[in-house]
Design brief:
This protein is α+β, with helices and mostly antiparallel strands and 142 residues long. It has a single domain, classed as Immunoglobulins (Immunoglobulin-like). The protein is 18% helix and 39% strand. The protein has two helices and eight strands. Strands 2, 3, 5, 6 and 7 form a five-stranded antiparallel beta sheet that branches. The protein is globular, with a radius of gyration of 15 Å. 25% of the residues are buried.
Length: 142
Amino acid sequence: MTLNTLLLIGLVHAGCITELKAQEGTGHPIRAVVVGLRPAAGNMLYIGLMDEQGEQLEGQRVPVTAEQMEVDFAPVAAGRYAVRLYQDENGNGQLDLGTFKIPKEGVGCSNNAKGFMSAPALKDMLFEVNGPKAIGIALNYY
């Protein structure tokens, strides 16, 4: 990940927190700011919010319209959560894998956690929510 990408995530994160505070009602809103997308007709972003046991709480399917997009999740109680996502670039509704199950399409998760020869561990993706939260996620292409 380049320094420019990290700076962009940081700036977007700061701006999103201000906006999220205005939206806060019951529970705490979570916004994922995804960078590094490849917009094209038919491309979809599949993104899910999980609890600290790895159970999916909410999943969304969003058309990819820009290189950077924001996705809001329903407000949640204070706790630890994780987000994972992939960009379906060929419109087949699934993450395509190549040799050794290496993703052929962009993937990412909260904390920009990375696994070694597998998906990242849930513990590496978890982040704390005790107020409005904006997280930056950079898509990885292998």
